[in-house]
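Running this now, will post back.
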Amino acid sequence: MTTADDNRATDPQDTATGPAPGAPVARRSSAVRTIGVVALATLAGAVAGALALYGMNRLPGNAPQGQSVASVPSAAPSGAAGDPACAGTVERVRAFAPLAKGELAALALASEPRRLPPLTFTDASGKPVTLADFKGRVVLLNLWATWCVPCRKEMPALDHLEKRLGGPDFAVVAVNLDTRDPDKPRAFLSEIGVNSLAFYADPATKTFQALRGVGRGFGLPTTLLVDRDGCEMAYLAGPAEWGGAEAEALVKAAIGAGRADAAGSSSAASR
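Update: finished.
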């Protein structure tokens, strides 16, 4: 039996003079789906950008054991940051290469002369500081942020290393890259009892971008061992146990490796 409602639902005149009753609902559903797709795409873009900086998409851990600096994936051609004046650094690194083991097995030792690009950040008072300001000291440069879990775990170890060896021959320079709330990293370091490390910050992340430009900034934490003249001695993409005996032995060897040269240069300059 056909009802009046059935006739209205199938009446050709209804479809000829306007959209079917269900069309507005369909348009609304389509719009909702479109908005959802756009929102997901925006979120995916934001996550991808974050991962590029955090390094989670390319740095699941340290570099493979035994990997050299030259074979670490680079964003720039090999030798882009090369400097013949750093050739002596490569020779000195070979002397303590056997110490890159255990917790430091992933440390990539310099196999070609490389000078780091100019790096600028600020100290606790906001005063500009450059890596060149540490000339004459071996530097363990570490880039970190409070949103990087491995970085947070490294801070006590880096603080311990600075407490043990920091001085006129060596410094741990930990540069914070938090882009918001400058008080957050300070509060974090205070909460965990870090008191030997000097506070350095680079909220614009220019140090990270500069290192990435020479194939040394793929994620956080990023750590470089730099000699007294600004030449790269070693590079590590990812975390390590910097507060242990192995790290202390390696850093002591790095300090001693350049001490004679530094003394010789100082003596020559005084003549």
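The first helix runs from residue 4 to 10. More later if anyone needs it.
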